[in-house]
Specification:
The complex is a heterodimer of chains A (about 350) and B (about 130). Chain A is an alpha/beta fold and about 350 residues long. Chain A is built from ten helices and twelve strands. In chain A, the strands form three sheets. Chain A has a five-stranded parallel β-sheet with strand order 2-1-3-4-5, sandwiched between helices. In chain A, helix 1 links the parallel strand 1 and strand 2. In chain A, helix 2 packs parallel to helix 3 and helix 5 runs antiparallel to helix 6. The radius of gyration of chain A is 30 Å and the shape is elongated. With about 130 residues, chain B is mostly helical. Chain B has a two-stranded antiparallel sheet. The longest helix of chain B has 28 residues. The interface between A and B is medium-sized, with 14 and 18 residues.
Chain lengths: ~350, ~130
């Protein structure tokens, strides 16, 4: 991490520069406030700054004020440590009021300066993390609004047509069928959003009990078969007669639904899907294997994050908000299990989860 | 004798004091562990001092640039503390206070003392590293 050292004293610059470099930072020195300001307003400026108070051309107080008031998109946040021979309570108040985040009086012990720099470095890291999360939240809101608006537009359009035009029962049923289908898509989206909201707020609870995972797989495959038949896709299973485990059937049903419906969604017509259950070392592994287009290696890890979609498109015009796998990951991990994907472009995908046997 | 970074280096004897009972040169412990840094630091210190003293002498002679005089003395005070020239730092501090209250005659008295103390430090450093 870059550290700006704004200091007019040549000897102090030499010492602090050497210390800062020894501690693994990248020092950038400025012999007065104006030079420091030019560095700060330049492209890719330092996020950490050690600023002396008394400097020619522009003193440290003015420099602090300018940095904190600047709207430079390159430096959304600069952590400033005022390093000065001033040390009265009034000086400290003046320095912090001017925008300094920390205040150190000279002479300073190297150990103290290093630990203060490390604190600044941590705060910058948290700040960057918060900014990324804020950006992700905005993206999240935008996508959620978009994914809710599309089906709503369909509902409004078809209901308006029905209201404004007299039509026979056949057409009425057809339009109502469309309205029903897009309402279901909306409900799925809202359910996913609520699940993610519960997960993100840390209030995600399971209701586990001893149950047969094989029975659950058979049931979920039967449900998915209805949609698969529309695309002439065959779902086969390779599972034992019974596998008793301790799990939340509703939540694991969600996981299976997600894997199987994704496989149906992204597979071309006339292909096969295989659902497998294997007992491994100390766990049970459930895999859903498809003959779809596969997923590029670079995209595989990001798939289990919120709002992540692979570069491939559903083959039957199905809708997806990209939250499903993030929810799946949380559900499986809450069962002390793991999730993963192995895939190669053009050679299908295998999505799997494991659950511990004990 | 200490062997640091391949150099033989002797810490000055602390019983050598300037008139104010302050050591002429007392290195900080972190400096004695990094002789190369100390050498660089002293080189920078002795390179800066002549320019600063020249400007100070001119200002005091003409009784002008009080703010600049104050800043220069503040810098010399800080730099002297950094290198461990505590006697110089003390005189610079007194001169800075005199400058803050605009006492040119006091400054004129203190400047030769400052010059002499700096020359002592220089000589001392040369003797130490011989």
């Amino acid at each position: 991490m870059k550290v700006l050292i704004a200091e007019d004293s040549a000897t102090s610059r030499v010492v602090v520069e050497e210390w800062v470099r020894t501690w693994g930072y990248q020092p950038i020195v400025a012999a007065d406030g104006m030079i420091a300001w030019n560095i700060i307003t330049h492209e890719d400026p330092p996020n950490l700054a050690l600023i002396d108070w008394m400097m020619p051309n522009m003193d440290g107080i003015e420099l602090c004020q300018r940095i904190k008031q600047s709207k430079n998109k390159n430096t959304p946040f600069t952590y400033i440590i005022l390093l000065t021979s001033k040390n009265s309570k009034e000086d400290i108040v003046t320095g912090l009021d001017a925008g300094a985040d920390d205040f150190l009086s000279k002479p300073v012990q190297p150990e103290e300066l290093r630990s203060r720099l490390d604190v600044g470095s941590r705060i910058i890291h948290y700040h960057q993390k918060l900014r990324e999360m804020d950006e992700q939240k905005n993206k999240f809101l935008g996508m959620a609004a978009h994914d809710l608006r599309s089906p709503l537009t369909s509902i409004m359009g078809f209901s308006q047509l029905m209201l404004e035009n007299p039509m026979d029962e056949k057409h009425q049923r057809e339009f109502l069928g469309i309205i029903h289908q897009v309402s279901q898509e909306m409900l799925n989206t809202v359910n996913d959003l609520l699940d993610i909201s519960v997960i993100e707020s840390g209030k995600f609870d399971l209701n586990p009990k001893q149950d047969d995972l094989v029975k659950l797989i058979h049931y979920r495959v039967r449900l998915a078969n209805m949609n698969a038949k529309h695309k002439n896709i065959e779902i086969n299973t390779c599972i034992p007669n019974s596998q008793m485990l301790f799990f939340d059937a509703d939540r694991l049903g969600q996981v299976l639904d997600n894997f199987i419906t994704n496989a149906v969604k992204y597979s071309p017509e006339g292909t096969h899907i295989l659902v497998m259950l294997q007992q491994k070392d100390r766990c049970v592994e459930v895999s859903v294997i498809d003959e779809g287009p596969g997923i590029a290696k670079a995209q595989q890890q990001a798939l289990f994050g919120a709002f992540q979609k692979a570069g491939v498109r559903p083959t039957g015009g199905e809708k997806s908000i990209g939250l499903g796998l993030a929810i799946v990951k949380k559900i499986v991990e809450s069962h002390q299990g793991t999730v993963g994907v192995s895939s190669e472009e053009g050679k299908g995908s295998r999505f799997y989860f494991t659950l511990p046997l004990t | 004798m200490l062997s640091i970074d391949g150099n033989d280096f002797q810490q000055p004897h602390n019983d050598v004091f300037a008139p104010m009972n302050l050591p002429i040169l007392q290195f900080k412990s972190e400096m004695t562990h990094n002789f190369l840094l100390l050498q660089r630091l002293m080189a920078v210190f002795f390179a800066e001092i002549p320019k600063q003293m020249k400007q100070l002498t001119e200002n005091v002679k003409l009784n002008q640039n009080l703010l600049q005089t104050q800043q220069l003395l503040h810098t010399i005070k800080g730099d002297s503390r950094t290198v461990g020239a505590l006697h110089v730092a003390e005189i610079a501090s007194q001169a800075e206070q005199a400058a803050q209250s605009g006492q040119w005659p006091a400054l004129a008295n203190l400047l030769p003392q400052l010059e002499q103390a700096l020359s002592q430090v220089h000589q001392y450093w040369l003797n130490t590293t011989e």
